[in-house]
Amino acid sequence: MLKVTKFGGSSVADACQFRKVRDIIQSDPDRRYVVVSAPGRRTPADAKLTDLLYLLDAHRQYHVDASNVYRIIRERILGIQKELGLKQNMAGELDAFYANLNQMKQDEIVSRGEYWCAKMMAEFLGFPFVDARDVICFNLDKTIDFKATKAKLQAKMAEYEHFVFPGFYGSTANGRIQVFTRGGGDITGAILANVMDADVYENWTDVSGFLMADPTIVDKPHEITHITYSELRELSYMGASVLHEEAIFPVKERNIPIHILNTNRPQDPGTFIQENRKTKSHYPITGIAGKSGFVSLYVYKKHMSSEVGYMRKVLSILEDYNVSIEHIPSGIDSFTVVMEEKDVENTLYEIVSRIKRELKPDEVKVQDNISLISTVGKRMSDSPGMAGRLFTALGRENISIMMIAQDSNEINITVAVETPDFETAVKAIYDEFVTKEDLQG
Ligand SMILES: Nc1ncnc2c1ncn2[C@@H]1O[C@H](COP(=O)(O)OP(=O)(O)O)[C@@H](O)[C@H]1O
Ligand SMILES: N[C@@H](CC(=O)OP(=O)(O)O)C(=O)O
After folding, report:
1. Which residues are involved in binding substrate (predicted)?
2. Any idea which fold 287-440 has?
C-alpha cells in the first residue's frame, strides 16, 4: 500500500505541529511520501508565511525597506528549527535568500516557505529532501507537463523509498520557479498521487474532514464522511477552501481516493472523496459553500429574442477583456452576466461603454456586492421540492434572491444574494436541510 500524505500550512505552523506530523508518519509505514506547505497561521490573528513572503516581495517591488518583514519570517523559521533542535544551517539559507532578494522573481520568493519547511521536515523525519524545482515541470502556459514530471518523479522514487517534498511550486523549462495559485500545495500532492499511482491521497489539515458548511459561518457543522469528486469540485470551486478546486483532476483520473484528515485529531474518521459514494447520506444535501465578490451586468434590448447573435456579441466583448463568466441567467429580451469583481475592477466601465456603443441596448445595469451560494448534493436530483424548500428558507429570513441557477446534472442549485445577506443565507439553508432533518430524526 502506498499513501501520499500532504500536510497543509496549519499542520506545520510551529514545532508542536511538526511533532504531530512525525507521529502521524511514524504510525503508518505506508506514509512514505510527504508533501508540506509553508507554515500557516498559529492563531486566527497570525499571518501565513506565504502571505509574509508576498508582503516581502511587495516591499521589494516598491523599493521599501523590507527588513522588518524579513525579521518576522526569519524568526518564524529559526524558531521552529531551534525548538526541534535541527542541525541544518537555516540561518545561512535565510540570509543568503535575503541578500539575493533583488535578483529573484515573485514566484521564487513566495515559494521559499514550502522549500524551508520541507527541508526542516526532512531532517526532522530523517527522510531525504527532494526539491519540487527539479521534479514538477510547468509548460510555458502554466499547465503541468505531465510527461516530464512523471519521468523525473519516477527517477526520484527509484532512488528513494521515502522523501519530503515541498508543495506549491515547480519550474518551467528554462529553470525558473513557477507557483500554482494560492492553496496549490493540494495540487502538488494530487500530482504525486497520480504519478506514483498511490492507493490513497491523504490531505491533512486542521478540520476533521469536509464539513457541510464553512465552520466560520455555521456553528459546528456536521462532517461529511463520504463525498464524490463532482460534489467536492462544486463545493471547493464555490469557496470551501479545505481542498484546492484543481486538486481533484489528477486523482480522479486514476480513481485514487482523497482522504481529508485532521492533524490535531488523527483518530477522527475524516472525509473520503471517491467517484461513487459508498453510503447513502442521511441528509438531502451534501454541503453548502459560497463566495462573495461578484458583480452582475444586466442587459435589456427590445426584441432581443429575435436578434440572432446578440448575447454572443456581448460575451465576445467580455472575452476581449479576459473576463470569465460564472452564470448567465436570461429572460426573453434580457440576460444578466455574473462575473468576479476582481476580473473587471479596472475595466467594467470601459466594457459597459463598449456594449452601449456597439450593441445599442435599451438598458444596461451594473450591480456589485453580490455573493453566490451553492447547495450541493447527488441526492438532490431524486428529492422533489428541493428548490422550493431552499427559496422558502431564504424567504423566511427576508433575503431576496437575485439569481437562481441549477446545473444540468441537478447536483447543485446556486443562488445569488446581496453580500450583507450572505452569512444569514448560508445559515438558513443549513438549518433547512440539516438542522431540521436532525430534529425530525
Ligand atoms: N466546508 C468546509 N469544511 C471544512 N473546512 C472548511 C469548509 N469551508 C471552509 N473551510 C475552512 O478551510 C480550512 C482548511 O483549509 P486551509 O486553511 O487551506 O488548511 P491548510 O492550511 O491545512 O491547507 C478550515 O480551517 C476551515 O476554516
Ligand atoms: N502556502 C501556499 C500553498 C498552500 O497550499 O498552502 P495551504 O496548504 O496552507 O493552503 C499558500 O498559502 O497559498
Report:
1. 50, 114
2. VC0802-like (3.30.2130)
Q: What is the pLDDT of residue 15?
A: 98
Predicted confidence (pLDDT) per residue in 24-51, tens digit: 999 999 999 999 999 999 999 999 999 9
The whole-angstrom separation of Cα 154 and Cα 137 is 13
On whether ipTM exceeds 0.90, the answer is yes
Task: Please work out whether the CB of residue 9 comes within 6 Å of at least one atom of ligand 2.
Answer: yes
Tell me: is residue 205 an annotated ligand-binding position: yes
Task: Write out the residue limits of the CATH 3.30.2130.10 domain(s) in the chain.
Answer: 287-440
Strand 325-327 with 287-300, pairing: unpaired
Q: Which atom of ligand 2 is nearest to the CA of 181?
A: 13
Q: Which atom of ligand 1 is nearest to the CA of 41?
A: 21
Q: Answer with the residue of higher pLDDT: 162 or 382.
A: 162
pTM above 0.95, yes or no: no
Q: pLDDT for 89-145, tens place per residue?
A: 999 999 999 999 999 999 999 999 999 999 999 999 999 999 999 999 999 888 999
